[in-house]
Write a structure and sequence with these properties.
- The chain is mainly alpha-helical and about 325 residues long.
- The protein has two domains: about 5-140, no CATH class; about 150-315, no CATH class.
- It has helices spanning about 5-10, 25-40, 40-50, 60-80, 80-85, 105-130, 145-150, 155-165, 170-175, 175-190, 195-200, 215-240, 265-295, 300-305, and strands spanning about 85-90, 90-95, 240-245, 250.
- The chain is elongated.
- The protein starts with a helix and ends in a 25-residue tail after the last helix.
Amino acid sequence: MLTTIEEVIATGLRVSTISDDDTLPDMAEATEKHIKPFLGATLVTALQDAYTNAAADAALRSLLPLVQKPLAAFAYLGELAATHVRITGAGVRRTATDNMPTAFRWEYDKAEAYLEERAFSTLETLLLYIDANAVALDEWLDADIVAARKSLLIKSGTDFGRFMHLQYPYLSWYRMLPVLKDVTEMNIIATFGQDFYNELLGVTSTDATTDPAGAEAKELTLWLQRAVANLTIAQATHKMAVKVTGLGFTVTGSQANSGNQDTATLEQLNRLTKRCEMDGKMYLRKAINYANSKASATLFATYYQSSHYTAPGSTIIDRKNDERKTFRM
């Protein structure tokens, strides 16, 4: 989706105008590694066709410039080290001329940080655009992403960003989908039951439906979204490569530093994990207490008639389900 140096410059990436098309990094590899995992194979294939077909669907043609920006940044970021040096029969040599000496280490680090920040920020903009224009792009969207939006209480990066300070809300949401699903299954569905959970899926933080309960369902859903957001962050710090800077929490895709933002220490990450786990469990308890106090034959009826309901004032036996582990011989 990028084949000339002029197209790269048009994305806003600051590359030298004396470069030529032969020096372009591997755009196909960058597409496979950094674009396809978020957009899906169907949409990427449609965009590649639209790149060479001016008569392609207008929605795809409008999306192309937004895709090209992170693609260019990721491609140059991935080959930055290789363009800085040359591998010869005599070993590794620096690429330099009398008129253009090689950059100092601090200049190289700054360039790397610039490319990483641009890659992730433009990818975030792309994902936000796709979410806002999902109807027009529906036939090309990844089936797993569409299914995830329908099966999770936190349906997008916007939802996630309302409850946690994230550097890249949409990027984090996409990357943490597996953790979001696990947290939902092990904590929310296990506590309230699949049937009642399915009813709550129609309720969002901005849309209180009349079924199952309207305002009450909205209130319960908010408690559950807070629980899921915190528990997901706690789990992500164990299972994924993450970092925290002054710009917020994010799931990382490389080890480059974000400019002058220092990443959190291991001790700080451990404190974050414990805090999010505590807050997540607290919000889940509040959700349980709220549901038990409101449930009746007419309100939250599915939950009220299930084995998950506990009448207010009843003795609750803590079966330590959250601490159970599976062992295999």
